[in-house]
What we know:
The chain contains seven helices and six strands, in the order ββαααβαβαβαβα. It is of the alpha/beta class.
Amino acid sequence: MKLAIHGGGSLEVSDDTFGAKFNEALIHQVITAYMAGGRAGTKAQKTRAEVRGGGRKPHKQKGSGRARAGTTRGPIWVGGGRAFAAKPRDYSQKVNRKMYQAAMRSVFSELIRQERLVVVDDIDIARPKTRDLVALLQGLGLQRVLILVDECKDNLRLSAQNLHWVDVVDIHSLNPLALVRFEKVLATAAAVKAVGERLS
């Protein structure tokens, strides 16, 4: 299949990579795993056994009129431990390479079907100025855009870092969440070609 390049010309790409069926369940699973992998998993609380103190019985068993108690560190006491204390854990989920690649193919194919992928020959920012990048994107009629390049240049990265509605990634840091977060994806022809080679 051929992808139109903005400004004229076309780019030949693989039907298997950019014409795959939309698999929502697989994309959901891969994105969930990606987000889970970003969780720190360092939360920790203390149980009644780990809280300091509580070794002495607070009052005698009978005669006080109060409920019997053997410690002041039970979960129902102020200053006591948690009943079901959170412990550090690994939230990462295993995703096979074939699953990941299939999900990425599905996302790119759906972007093309929805006309959300805009391909250009090159993105040339001569100086690190935000207004230069804004002018370029306005000329293309783009808002909330992910810029995908084969190699991230400093001028482009610096021009975009103050725009909360723009993100710049290269093919090595590309992830499924970034692709679905933005309304449009602006990609260079070289980046699309490289993605096709990585996912084929």
